[in-house]
Amino acid sequence: MGYRNFVCLNIAIIGNGPRVALFAEQLAREGHTVFIGLNEDEDDDVLVDSELDNIFFENIEDASAQADVIYMAVPADRIREVAYMMGDVRDKVIIDASANIDPKPEHYVATLKAAIAITGAEDMVKSYFLAPEFDAREAGDIFFAGNSKKAKSVAMLLANSLGFKNTYDFGDIDTVPLLEDMARCWYNLAIKQNLGKNITFKIVNR
């Protein structure tokens, strides 16, 4: 059963690159309207399926204004900058999907809290997942941390529509450093240990 059978949303994805294109196309095919938010001086290197007529390119503020849900797919060191650029998003659900490999993960928690303070959005959650194109049997798990139950609920439903069958509530905002530890573990395995980027994490029950 597709997510479109529940509700179709206006979703802003802030960022660019292959992952944004993949997510935008998957969400659009589920019936959602997707606004890809870019800096006005940013090169548009997001290549999406031209047959999809429910994907639009906007500046960051306009994309955010039209969205019910904002998906932040930018580097962690740009979170503060982007938070200021989104405009009035106090009533939006915001999913922070950035990855941080800073050796001091507590810095990221401060950034996440700052983004909440900057935007005034109470429904903001951090997500951690990797999205190589596995088949349904191999799809990795997705994890969320934050204080908003509403944001977690929406994020989990969208994760399902992106092909993630198993989603986990990791805890409140104080558990974000644990998610960042996972990101650094992945980076070590994928890059430093040469396993390649097409790896992910999955919880297996016996």
Q: Any chance you could write out the topology, listing elements then pairs?
A:
Layout: E1 10-14, H1 18-29, E2 33-38, E3 55-59, H2 60-65, E4 69-72, H3 79-85, E5 93-96, H4 106-119, E6 124-128, E7 142-145, H5 149-161, E8 167-171, H6 176-192
Parallel strand pairs: 1-2, 1-4, 2-3, 4-5, 5-6, 7-8
Antiparallel strand pairs: 6-7
Helix pairs in contact: 3-4
> Which CATH class?
Alpha Beta
What's the average pLDDT? 83
CATH architecture, by name, is 3-Layer(aba) Sandwich
**Order of helix and strand elements from N to C terminus:** EHEEHEHEHEEHEH
- Give unreliable regions as ranges: 1-5
- Mind telling me the CATH superfamily name? NAD(P)-binding Rossmann-like Domain
Note the gap between the termini.
Answer: 27 Å
The counted number of beta strands is 8
Name the beta content range: 15-25%
The biggest beta sheet is recorded as: 8 strands, mixed
- As laid out across the biggest beta sheet, the strand order is 3-2-1-4-5-6-7-8
Q: Percent of residues in helical segments?
A: 25-40%
- How many structural domains does the protein architecture include? 1
> Any idea what the shape is?
globular
The CATH topology label is: Rossmann fold
Rg result: 16 Å
Short description:
The chain has helices at 18-29, 60-65, 79-85, 106-119, 149-161, 176-192, and strands at residues 10-14, 33-38, 55-59, 69-72, 93-96, 124-128, 142-145, 167-171. With 206 residues, it is of the alpha/beta class.
List its traits:
206 residues; Rossmann fold; single chain; eight-stranded mixed beta sheet; 33% helix; globular; 8 strands; 6 helices; alpha/beta; disordered N terminus
